[in-house]
Amino acid sequence: xxxxxxxxxxxxxxxxxxxxxxxxxxxxxxxxxxxxxxxxxxxxxxxxxxxxxxxxxxxxxxxxxxxxxxxxxxxxxxxxxxxxxxxxxxxxxxxxxx
Length: 98
Hints:
This protein is mainly alpha-helical. Helices cover about 65% and strands about 0% of the residues. The radius of gyration is 20 Å and the shape is flat.
């Protein structure tokens, strides 16, 4: 069985192009999320004038909270989109609103 249970496994030693493409897409999505977190939290929490080589306590706490909030909002948006998509699919609609 292949990734996510789709289809038969490729012959031994064969490269499954679909799995490679899925892995590349996942890496791109994770990299995009990481870059957005870094950009957003860096601009909110770290002064553009670097005084020290390490983060001070306030910056560290700010970044921890910023990342936690980013993931919480991301989770809520994902859940909202899934329920809206499920509702749209159940009613036969092709568009949905958040």
